[in-house]
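Re: NDP structure - here you go.
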Amino acid sequence: MSQDNQKPVRVGLLGIGTVGGGTFTVLKRNQEEIRRRAGRGISIDMVADLNVARAKELVGDAVEVVSDARQVIANPNIDVVVELIGGYGIAKTLVLEAIAAGKHVVTANKALLAVHGTEIFAAAREKGVMVAFEAAVAGGIPIIKSLREGLTANQIQWVAGIINGTTNFILSEMRDKGLDFDVVLKEAQRLGYAEADPTFDIEGIDAAHKATLLSAIAYGIPVQFDKAYVEGITKLSAVDIKYAEQLGYRIKLLGIAKRQAAGIELRTHPTLVPQRRLIANVEGAMNAVMVQGDAVGTTMYYGKGAGSEPTASAVVADLVDIARLTDAPAASYVPPLAFQHDSMSTLPILPIEEVVTSFYVRLRVADQTGVLAKITGILAEQGISIDAVIQREADEVSGENGNQTDLILLTHDTKEGRMNKAIAAMQALPTVLAPIVRLRKEELA
Ligand code: NDP
Ligand code: HSE
């Protein structure tokens, strides 16, 4: 029997900025198609935003607009609260209050869930409501649903993704157009990709929030942002982007979650990726996530990871899921982190020293006999195997001073702790003339 005659799901929107505005527009434009899919209408009945005049201009007279988000939560006619304010402050309080009031919650707020997810998911379970967050990772790409439901048969071996559009946009524009970092960042902000605090983007924090959520869903572990290793793109230098290209690699900011026997690697950092991989060719603000499962092999998901309507696409998909399940018993809800709450894993997040990866290492050295032998000797002492060594011509490095050169080493897989020891020993050599640059490399084969 069709559920078409059922009353619509009534939604209250908290924050109608970039994503909230897109959500309102998409729901309005596609309401008929969405009703046919959901089996009932989805209606935004109330909006809270600090800027009431701007919100009224967008939504018109048919929707009640208030400045106090608590009025939305207190409205007994609202079934679902959509939190699109952002941050860990008032957003956390409002989400917990909405849950306590028995409302389902949809949010795009990865910062909130990566840090406070355990508390929020527990509160929702206790209250028998859903917390849906497809928009929180990779914007419009349905990666949460793919990982949680589509790949549910698999043991996930690793997940690696370009999950911050702002930094991918910056890296692409700097490489292709030779533009300065600051100019490209301003453009990303103008286009609505960047976070309210763009430090979250460029220092890797936003990508690490998303990687934290992916790790929890992939392995059934609690969200543990505090244990994630985070490194952004602000210290990346143009010369390393150039050398990487010459060696057949692109540098991408990757969020990585990988299973090892002893625990889970959870890390975000600039990464050399072979140019021939599809993911190395993901440009601009686009996102892509690769997932390797034992049964399915390698899969990849690509699309817009930010922006008004792409993100709204994911918010509305969550609303449809809730509309379909709203009359069902809570036991039939899909667990937010894919695994049943009483079957979560205790596998620890590994410290960065235990992470296994290969490396790109650049050393500015005196162009003298025996320098390379000392360096390879130090690596051998740490059991680190060298994949390739390249020495740039002296005049490429220092035209005015031909007695320096850049040595670039690519290593095979090793533990980061060993590499740290090797770098400390190499740095102490009098023939190593500048701070050593170390970047991680992933073959993603
Ligand atoms: P915006 O800053 O564009 O929108 C936030 C809105 O919330 C603003 O209109 C703001 O009003 C309003 N607001 C702030 N405080 C309150 C409050 N106490 N009560 C009611 N309204 C309030 O942010 P975005 O739309 O870009 O981001 C929203 C969320 O979505 C964030 O969690 C973000 O990380 C996430 N996200 C964003 C993406 C994007 O592409 N932008 C993509 C994926 C996720 P005012 O402007 O007056 O301060
Ligand atoms: N600031 C984020 C980005 C928005 O650039 O990807 C999407 O989460």
